[in-house]
Write a structure and sequence with these properties.
Largest sheet: none
Shape: globular
Number of strands: 0
Oligomer: single chain
Helix content: over 70%
Structural class: mainly alpha
CATH superfamily: MFS general substrate transporter like domains
CATH architecture: Up-down Bundle
Strand content: under 5%
Length: 385
């Protein structure tokens, strides 16, 4: 019965969600601004924009396992605060650079920030959520990320058009600093198994489901990297509308269907989400009009609605409380591979054949991820039987 369920919306849970909202709104401003800044004032190409967008994945990939171990052994909150403040510092540096190499250097520093904030935040979420409501907790918590992606780009567009690039970057820095301040208000709970941490860098049981999550992020990050440029290409008057619609659909579906991930097998749900992402990218690639772009965005956003809760629920199911940092670090290392690989690889495709071809390749990556995840689900069913 619903009345007997353990409480989810505690003070710490809500504060964590608001801190995530501030941090990812900052990221949303950068998602809109960075490709335009790279191809505009910096004077680089679409391939350069993809490289700059995805470069943070290199350092984030290296640092995620260490952030996971540190959050298991030292605590979640110090890592989150450090990450948010470092991200703010990176945003403040952008107005002072005018070369692709310098932009990439800043993005590499922001990769360290992303690793610390993201890994510790997800481990803290797993500490705060009742086990039987983990999928629901992931659905609600991820609203901060997708609200940030929904409202960050329009905010970036307003700041850019009204006051220029410098103010856009300063606004992004202020939001990241706010995330650090909100994190300071959270009280970290004691972990059920003592919370000393096992000190491992890699959580091996989480690797297989993380590969499916990698495919979803590789496909989606290619869309995020080139959505504003493709909006201009198909003559969509509001170039931030596609990103706003993407975030808004995910937010609506995460609220409306928050309990679904706890009622369905995680891996099957993850595979279905990958197929929806592939279908949405295919629509965008083939129907090259504003209507086609927006229609495809709705379809892929529905897929993204369930991908994060499904895959993270599958990954955390393999971890004890003192292993959650390592599990989050391992899973998010694959996220970094996806977020780094997607924009760089699809940027090369876009440079050679055009952005629609890049979206088509992204759809193929999602299909391969769905096949892999379905095989894992079948193997799990056989083992259970």
């Amino acid at each position: 019965m619903s009345g007997t369920r353990a409480p989810l919306f505690t003070r710490a849970f809500v504060l964590l969600g608001v801190a995530d909202l501030a941090y990812f709104t900052s990221v949303g401003v950068a998602i809109y601004t960075l490709p335009l800044y790279t191809t505009g004032p910096v004077g680089s190409s679409e391939a350069g924009a993809g490289l700059a967008f995805g470069a943070f994945g290199i350092t984030a990939l290296v640092c995620r396992p260490f952030a996971g171990r540190a959050s298991d052994t030292r605590g979640r909150l110090p890592l989150m605060i450090f990450g948010a403040l470092l991200a703010a510092a990176g945003m403040l540096l952008f107005p002072y650079v005018d070369s692709l190499a310098a932009v990439i250097a800043i993005r590499l520093v922001q990769g360290v920030a992303e690793a610390a904030f993201f890994v510790a935040g997800f481990a803290l979420l797993a500490d705060l959520a009742p086990p039987e409501r983990m999928g629901e907790a992931l659905s609600y918590n991820s609203l901060g990320l997708y609200l940030g992606i929904a409202f960050g780009p329009p905010l970036g567009e307003v700041l850019l058009e009204q006051w220029g690039y410098d103010v856009a970057w300063i606004g992004a820095a202020g939001l990241a600093a706010l995330a650090a301040a909100l994190t300071c208000l959270i009280r970290e709970p004691a972990r059920a198994d003592g919370g000393d941490g096992h000190g491992r860098l890699i959580h091996r049981p989480g690797i297989a489901p993380s590969l499916g999550f990698f495919a979803s992020l590789a496909a989606i990050s290619g869309f995020l990297a080139f959505a504003s440029l493709y909006s201009e290409e198909v003559e969509l008057s509001n170039t931030s509308l596609a990103l706003f619609l993407y975030g808004a659909v995910v937010v609506f579906c995460r609220i409306a269907f928050a309990r679904v991930p706890d009622r369905l097998p995680s891996l099957q749900l993850g595979a279905a989400s990958l197929l929806a992402i592939a279908a949405g990218l295919t629509v965008i690639a083939l129907w090259q009009t504003p209507a086609g772009l927006l229609s495809g965005v709705v379809v892929l956003a529905v897929g993204v609605t369930f991908s994060t809760p499904a895959f993270f629920a599958a990954i955390f199911a393999t971890a004890t409380p003192s292993e959650r940092g390592a599990a989050a670090g391992t899973a998010s290392a694959f996220i970094d591979l996806g977020l780094g690989f997607g924009p760089i690889a699809l940027g090369l495709v876009a440079d050679a054949r055009g952005i629609p071809w890049a979206f088509g390749v992204g759809a193929g990556i999602a299909v391969l991820g769905a096949i892999w995840t379905l095989r894992l689900a079948r193997a799990e069913s056989v083992a259970t039987a």
